[in-house]
Amino acid sequence: MQAFHLLGPAPFYTNSFLLISDAGHAVIIDPAAEVQEYDKILKEHNAQLTTILCTHGHYDHVGSAGTLRREHKAKLYCEPVDCRGTQLLPLKAADVDSGYEEGETIAVDELKFTVWHTPGHTEGGVVLLCGEYLFAGDTVFQGSMGRTDLEGGDDRKMEQSLRKFAKLPIPRGTQLLPGHGDFSTMGQELDNNFYIRQALRNAKAE
């Protein structure tokens, strides 16, 4: 596998990732960068884009999704509830090939993505585990969490998702790749993320 990190445009600089399997099939997670940036990597590595995985539907995470899907005839995944055709959630149901099943594994050659739903930032938020990489979208950032005051956000659901996140069967050394900002590890967030720790404290108090 080869892995590439790209950034979306200012002011959000959304983290986007392109993975290429040993057989030359490519997967994009959160297609936020410009289309030509992905095309350049695909051409340089003689890779075929087959799959696009969106952690949620906000415009700063899906900006190139439609064009890449059409251009490469790739399968596009995003939760239908996040596909409203609005300014904030621009994808429409017709733009998307599939949502996600809780706990399902999406396989592209040796790349296997396990999916868990983590609503709160949006109704359709998910996190994706592939080997030693955890693509956390806007659920968990280094030392923080996704905001809940936008369309589809929900404080209560976010707290439930953070509790769930803390109990996922993911090794502590797994690299956590958030939708924005610096990378971290699962262990660092379990030990140091105030919002995760607070959600767990609240669970004990209930």
TrEMBL record:
Cofactor(s), by name: Zn(2+)
Pfam families in the record: Lactamase_B (PF00753)
Domain Metallo-beta-lactamase as annotated: residue spans: 13-180
Gene Ontology molecular function: any one: metal ion binding
InterPro entries in the record: MBL_Glyoxalase_II (IPR051453), Metallo-B-lactamas (IPR001279), RibonucZ/Hydroxyglut_hydro (IPR036866)
Assigned keywords, A-Z: Hydrolase, Metal-binding, Zinc
Coiled-coil intervals, chain numbering: none
Keyword tRNA-binding in annotation: no
Xref: PANTHER family: HYDROXYACYLGLUTATHIONE HYDROLASE GLOC (PTHR46233:SF3)
Name the UniProt record assigns to this protein: MBL fold hydrolase
Organism (species): Faecalibacterium prausnitzii
